[in-house]
Amino acid sequence: MSSFARVWRAVPTLLRIGVAETVAYRAEFLVWILTSTMPLIMLGLWTSVASEAPFRTFSSSRFVAYYLSVLIVRHLTSNWVAWQLSEEIRLGVLSMRLLRPIHPFFSYAATHIAALPFRSLIALPLTFILLISSGASALSTDPLQLALLLPSLFFAWLITFGILFALGCTSFWFTQMFGLFNFYFGVWSLFSGYLLPIALLPSWIGRIAEYSPFYAMLGAPIELMTESLTPHQLGVLFARQALWAVAAVATAFWVWRAGVRRFEAVGG
Amino acid sequence: MIHAKELTKHFKVHRRPPGFASALKSLVHRKYEVVKAVDGVTFKIERGERVGFLGPNGAGKTTTLKVLSGLLHPTSGEVDVAGHVPFRREPALLGKITLVMGQKSQLIWDLPPAETYAMNRAIFDVPQAEFDKTLAELTDLLELAPLLDKPTRQLSLGERMKCELAAALLHRPLTLFLDEPTIGLDVAMQVAIRDFVRNYNHRHEATVLLTSHYMDDVVALCPRIIVIDQGKLIHDGDLRKLIKTMDPDKRVSFTLGDHVTEADVGKLGAVLAQEGKRMTIRIPESDLADAVSHLLGTLKVVDLAIEDPPLEDVLRVMFGKSKNHTNGAS
Fold first, then answer.
1. What pTM, to 2 d.p., does this model score?
2. Is the distance from CB of A174 to CB of A228 less than 8 angstroms?
3. What is the ipTM of this complex?
4. How far is it, in rounded angstroms, from Cα A15 to Cα B232?
5. N or C, which end of chain B is more exposed by having fewer CB within 10 Å?
6. How many domains does chain A have?
């Protein structure tokens, strides 16, 4: 049986196990889904700034729409595979994953996909209500854009997962990657539009951001939700996301292949 | 079949003394040392063999098992397991082997073992009927029924080990790498596991490579042993022959009768142990027949038993020689 066929057949069970793992600790799970408050802090800050008059092109309701979209996309695309992989490498726990005839990329991916609906259980309905009540006027109503949101979120998830998987693999060299992750998070926060809409950054930073993988991870789906795009702009947005998805997954596999040779399988 | 040829595995280890100053110093200047965990080991194991892999702590046993099961890339040398190069971890190989590590869990920590079993069934693509049959058999043998729905983290070491063994065998591997598989188990369960491994070996013609600090495991299961010390192979061969070569004398244990003195017995051989009237003496094999006849006929001792020297004693002598040889050479 080919590796892909094996993965495909194992997916339903892996997803079911992933769900069971997600809900194993109910209190921790509840706290987790109520976190990710940074967009809400930024929302409070910027709506206050724009309460009297729009800040550049951003009115108060546009800020609401923007930051609540950030919250939704972040909830649906973020994951902790970098920490998980890093700890498993450092403690040697990865050994047991390596003995299974399925690439760890897929087993980790199944765990994280399985967690998605639960992580969004509270945050998403709440955000939707806020979005519709406070930021609806700044949302896109174009049916094509809304239809393309799902594939865009899929690409965003894949790029995020691929990059964080590769980042976790750096523990094969450094044992721990938290310093590197903090640096990554800073760069990502700026270029993805997590902290500020790209339109509010200096134009040269904005241009770099648009070509970066970080924007494809967060800014692109937000653009679909909050902007009115031409067919050409939509094509460019998807082409960039698709290219970055291929690059992120290829990088993840490449870094894994190079790093796993150095695995020391400590303990035992 | 397993074949290792001139296998080496070296690790680069950072060393520093304890203390704040040395911690700061290590930020700018680190001392590394290359540890030769496995150093030019060669052996061949045929399908269906049960082999004990022995050596003192840090000898390189577990490292060798990790290389053979594909967890570690060897520094140099060649390894072949069932026609595959292990570190490539091809699914065809991983479906044929298993590694049980007493100190590492393959069970999902937060979930009951039954969930790990279900996951392994899916990943190893075991047909449901075969899975059900194997699990029922393992559940019965290892008394797993009350443990299957308890979270792994709440199991005792012994309970976990039983569940680990079941998880490792559900896909019916043909090569078993067992690293301390009876650790934490009570004596009755140790015996049950040994019987199970022996039966599994017979039924599936499975190859077994076992490390254990319980010499009873090795004596009961492994006709052949490979001994390594400081990463180097120092013996590969029949267990009985090794014992006979290293220490040909027999241990004779018996209980003294009322009017027999220790002095009467002491003439027959060196007294190794005495507890009340129970004694163990060491007798050269050539004198055994006469000695036993004298003990039973003249001295009228009771409960007489003749045994080979304990494997622990043989190994202690062996590792001592290996160390002296290394010190002499260095």
1. 0.86
2. no
3. 0.82
4. 45
5. C
6. 1
